[in-house]
Design brief:
The chain has eleven helices and no strands. It has 233 residues and is mainly alpha-helical. The chain has one domain. The longest helix is centred in the middle third of the chain and has 30 residues.
Length: 233
């Protein structure tokens, strides 16, 4: 059986695990039912986006040869991805609600889940190529989740177009790396570093001042310091 088809449903397992990690610091800052609907809605939206993007790539095989075409595709895909998230997160009930950043993270994570069916199609998972493919899938999930949180924060702050623009720029950097990694698997290391670094920055540095009060942030820093000290003992 094609690994891509297998990983489609199995992709829910790492996605749910990543969702659990993402939501952890923001306990009591969101509504469970909205997070769940955002995640499921993201999966449906992601499947539609994936089909459209996959069909587009299949019709332009020359993107593998001409770098300028690759950059154009990357920009178009970035705009398409972020616009899809903005349309959902721009619903009136999310306006002026900072917690929309959390729902955006769940939406983005759901949107990134179906990518495994495309990236891992026809790949032997028990190989270097398979390991690179899996790392690309997980990196794509993290990146979509982080940009979803960024757009959600923009909607909540009333600055949706500013944060949408930031997300598009980040996507225009991420997508060329991802597309090139499908050809040159050694580049998957750059994709992982970019996606994981951006995700960590969003949830450890950028979002906490908006979503967590000062007391909670200090408590979490003390807990991290204690864990580091215990680790050295």
């Amino acid at each position: 059986m094609d690994p891509g088809l297998v990983f489609g449903p199995l992709g829910l397992v790492p996605a749910i695990f990543l969702l659990y990690i993402t939501l952890g610091p923001y306990e009591n800052k969101f509504k469970d039912n909205i997070v769940f609907l955002s995640f499921i809605g993201g999966m449906i939206l992601g499947t539609i986006v994936l089909l459209l993007q996959g069909s587009f790539l299949a019709s332009i095989p020359s993107y593998r040869t001409y770098f300028n075409i690759l950059l154009l595709i990357a920009l178009l895909f970035s705009i398409f991805d972020q616009l899809a998230k903005l349309i959902i997160l721009n619903l009136p009930r999310f306006h002026t609600d900072i917690s929309t950043a959390i729902y955006g993270a769940a939406l983005g994570l759901g949107l990134g889940t179906p990518i495994g069916a495309l990236i891992l199609r026809g790949i032997d998972l028990i190989s270097i190529q398979g390991a690179a493919g899996i790392s690309l899938v997980l990196s794509f999930m993290l990146f979509q989740s982080a940009t979803g949180a960024l757009i959600g924060l923009g909607v909540g702050k009333g600055k949706k177009w500013v944060y949408f623009f930031y997300s598009v720029i980040l996507g225009a950097i991420f997508w060329p790396l991802l597309l090139l990694s499908l050809i040159y698997y050694t580049l998957s290391v750059l994709v992982v570093l970019f996606a994981v670094g951006f995700y960590i920055y969003m949830h450890n540095v950028f979002l906490p001042p908006f979503l967590l009060d000062r007391k909670t942030r200090k408590s979490k820093r003390r807990q991290k310091t204690k864990r580091k000290l215990l680790g050295k003992i």
